[in-house]
Amino acid sequence: MKPVVFNNTVLRDGHQSLAATRMTTAQMLPATARLDALGFDALETWGGATIDATLRFLRENPFDRLDQLKAAAPGTPHMMLLRGQNIVQYTSFPDDVVEAFVRCSARHGMDIFRVFDALNDTRNLRTAIRTVKAEGKHAQGAICYTTSPYHTPAKLAALADELVELGSDSICIKDMAGLLTPRITFELVRSIKARHSVPVIVHSHDTAGMAVASYLAAIDAGADAVDTSITPFANGTGQPDTVRMLAAMTDHPRAPKYDTKVLLELRKYFEGVAVELAKFMSTANERVDSDALSYQVPGGMLSNFRTQLAEMKMETRFNDVMAEVPVVREALGWIPLVTPTSQIVGTQAVLNVKFGRWKNLAQASVDIALGKFGRTPGPIDADLLALARKQSGQEPVAGRPADLLSSRMPKLREELAAKGLEVSDENAVLFAMFPRETEAFYKSAPVPASPAPLAVVAAPPNGTPNQVLPVAAPRLDPAPSRIAKKLRVSIEGKTYEVLVESVDSEGDSASAPAATPVATPAAAVVAVTPPLAAKPEADSSSSVVSPLAGKIVSIDVKVGQTVAEGAQLATIEAMKMNTFIYAPKAGRIGEVLVDAGDSVDEGAALMLLF
């Protein structure tokens, strides 16, 4: 039998699973040429949460990243993770937006599109796979592996028939939570190989410590490739380390050959990057956790989820939230936990723990219940479905959800032009998925990161021996952007209008000397105007406060409007999901204290209700 081949994930899933997707392009580039020279079957460099993170946190253009990585590694096929009709977001998009995104990605050098649907509803893969094939690229259809009364190995293997019928050039068994056991892996791979001649790839996470053993079983069953990464962005919630996987295959008849000396040099480099990303990494994500077999949360989510809970000051409730995850998953039809469903279920679990079960439904949970994401494997809990119907005033959809969506590309171009942004398909698809982040990226000029010395692995010139050269590596984050805005503050009964200069929460204050251990304020006062005319005092009986830390998406009422108890007042984005804020009592809106786009802390007053 021919040797198995490895795909390497260190530039995408490796840091998504272990460092909350915070590796910058500048931190990747010094090692990219050496990765290219190792001869992996593919380098996973894009897709998943990286596109969101580059815009939201790193102030980078995702397509610029792809251009740079492709130029630095032209010899190895580049691979991305694509969420079917969700593209790389948390909601469904019309066909023309999906098609435009695939065309743009192919134009910028993407070679292999690993396409999956979180519900394993292959109707949601049709448009993406068709477009990938039309662009002359490789369409890899993925089966999301999970366990439930509705997910048996036989049913999962049968999904390969549908994927091949759609035109998939290869099949990936995508084990996002590290649940595959060796025996099931062997049977699943053997069953698919017996039915189809296309290559079979196995992707797993070592969260529960079984990935290496399951990979070996897959290889014995005839799998063509497995995914590995590079320590410290490997193992734990990530993919097995490449050197570790090579060692496990010692004397195996299908063992591949990759230069371990270069791999160890790359490890040394990425250890330096991990130091820069330390605040986004957790030892809990690096160790084996058999509890993952119960709550089935994927590795990429665990890394980001711990960070998100810390931002919400709920890190001590991690175990409570994880215990609630299986409850939410079953109620939502036993859906597999993979982006975006993992984030939806995780967010709803947080809301259940914080407010009481089903007391506050995230919009995405409502959409899952109503079938807007597709066909769920099992039935929706009847009580939850009734709540979703009541909250939305809508009935469940029938048929392929995307068929109900209108074309958007012409409208997106108009919106870009109206905002003074460059009109291009690339900007249109980014704006469709991440409108606020895309606009903020173009309207706040990014400041290049300051370099810090770090030994990195350089590409061998003209085939000369391997070498390690000192190359500048950037600090973690770009300099924070500063935005002046007015706020109202009450001091000793008088209300003042204050002009403040806010510092982006992902950055550190540039004004504090690096060596001075002082606390950096979130905002520095620039100017204070004379006291304003007296306004109604806000107290616990009149203030509507934010239940979560997040960003205000919309204010859904107007000053003077009379509302009933339970009426929707505003929408807040927390943990990447939209959640509604409801009126705690009937009354009249006296004043709105925040605007759409504002970031607020939990407990912040949003409006007055009398």
Notable characteristics:
single chain, 610 residues, alpha/beta, 8-stranded parallel barrel, 4-stranded antiparallel sheet, 21 helices, 19% strand
Shape: globular
Q: How many strands in all?
A: 21
Unreliable residue stretches: 446-486, 492-496, 501-539
Quote the beta fraction: 15-25%
Q: Biggest sheet, in brief?
A: 8 strands, parallel, barrel
Helical segment count: 21
Oligomer: single chain
CA radius of gyration is: 25 Å
Strand order of the main beta sheet, please?
A: 1-2-3-4-5-6-7-8
Q: Overall pLDDT, averaged?
A: 84
Write up what this structure looks like.
α2 (25-37) packs antiparallel against α11 (260-276). With 610 residues, the protein is of the alpha/beta class. The termini are far apart. α9 links the parallel β7 and β8. The chain is globular and about 75 Å long. The relative contact order is 0.11. The strands form five sheets. The chain has an eight-stranded parallel β-barrel with strand order 1-2-3-4-5-6-7-8, surrounded by six helices. It has a four-stranded antiparallel β-sheet with strand order 14-21-19-16, with no helix packed on it. A four-stranded antiparallel β-sheet has the order 18-17-15-20. Helices cover 36% and strands 19% of the residues. The protein contains 21 helices and 21 strands. The model is unreliable at 446-486, 492-496 and 501-539 (pLDDT under 50).
